[in-house]
Design brief:
By secondary structure, the chain is α/β, with parallel strands linked by helices. It has helices at residues 13-22, 46-50, 67-79, 101-112, 132-138, 159-171, 189-196, 211-220, 225-239, 249-254, 261-267; strands at 2-6, 27-31, 36-37, 53-59, 84-88, 115-121, 143-146, 153-154, 177-181, 187-188, 205-208. It has two domains: 1-120, Rossmann fold (3-Layer(aba) Sandwich), CATH 3.40.50; 122-157 and 182-246 and 256-270, UDP-galactose 4-epimerase, domain 1 (Alpha-Beta Complex), CATH 3.90.25.10.
Length: 270
């Protein structure tokens, strides 16, 4: 029996896949661009993807209206004999409406599986090097323009900690647990951007913009309206202070402290 990792080319998924294989676990990575292809919009290949799978790690795409499809995939997984599901959403998803993309996936996993774990990470450190913030900055000559204030604080969490927690949840006894994963401290955006200078991050400057300007910049890059609206909701929550919370869930899950942002920066230095 094997473990299936969805979103296997993403920031967390590929690290989960590598972590499982380092432990000698038979694991298959699936995504639209992986050798094992998984497309949330095409159900025809789902049964083949799920053959022989005992455990599944599921990442729900943000702001793409695919929550129902992911929930449907979890249903198909349970019918195929999958016994254990780890679902990754985002910090604060427990407060979202039940029909929102990520909350729908969480609830379906809890309904279907006796062994389930929910991971809700905050914004990732790696967003500055390979994720959302990096993409925005590359389009603006290194300037990160976001609808947050310079002093808006976020307890950024390292993708390695999220992946390690996912691996632990898949292989150990973390059943029926919900982990909100954060770094060890909350940093203002202005400070985080200052710290990333001189690393492989393309982010060199920060500018606070309003939601409408961010919406224009993001949709001009080809990002979908629903995705941009979801980002704006997360940024509004951060401005309200919801993303500054620091939890002890990384330590609870892994028995060690989370990786500090300063270490991430040091290890990303060019």
């Amino acid at each position: 029996m094997s473990t299936l990792v969805t979103g296997a080319t993403g920031m967390v998924g590929r690290r989960v896949l590598a972590g499982l294989r380092r432990r000698g676990v038979a694991a298959t990575g699936a995504s639209r661009t992986s050798e094992t292809r998984l497309d949330w919009t095409d159900t025809t290949g789902w049964d083949d993807v799920l053959k022989g799978v005992e455990r599944v790690f599921v990442v729900t795409p943000v702001g793409l209206g695919l929550g129902g499809r992911v929930a449907g995939f979890l249903t198909r997984a349970a019918e195929a004999g999958v016994e254990h599901a780890v679902v990754m959403s985002a910090m604060g998803t427990e407060h979202a409406p039940s029909d929102s993309d990520q909350r729908a996936a969480e609830l379906r996993a809890k309904e279907l599986f006796a062994r389930w774990t929910v991971l809700r990470p905050n914004w990732l450190d790696q967003d500055f090097t390979e994720g959302t913030f990096a993409g925005l900055a590359r389009a603006r000559n290194g300037r990160l323009e976001l609808p947050v204030r310079k002093n808006t604080a976020v307890s950024f969490v390292d993708a390695r900690d999220v992946a390690d927690t996912a691996v632990a949840a898949l292989l150990e006894d973390h059943h029926r647990r919900e982990y909100t994963l954060t770094g060890p401290q909350a940093l203002p955006f202005r400070e985080a951007v200052r710290m990333t200078k001189g690393t492989d991050s393309p982010v060199w400057r920060f500018k606070s913009v309003d939601e409408s300007r961010f919406y224009f910049r993001a949709t001009d890059r080809g990002w979908g309206e629903r995705y941009v609206d979801t980002l704006n909701e997360r940024f509004a929550a951060a401005v309200a202070g919801a993303a500054a919370r620091v939890t002890g869930d990384v330590r609870t899950a892994l028995g060690r402290d989370p990786i500090p942002f300063a270490r991430f920066v040091r290890e990303s230095t060019v």
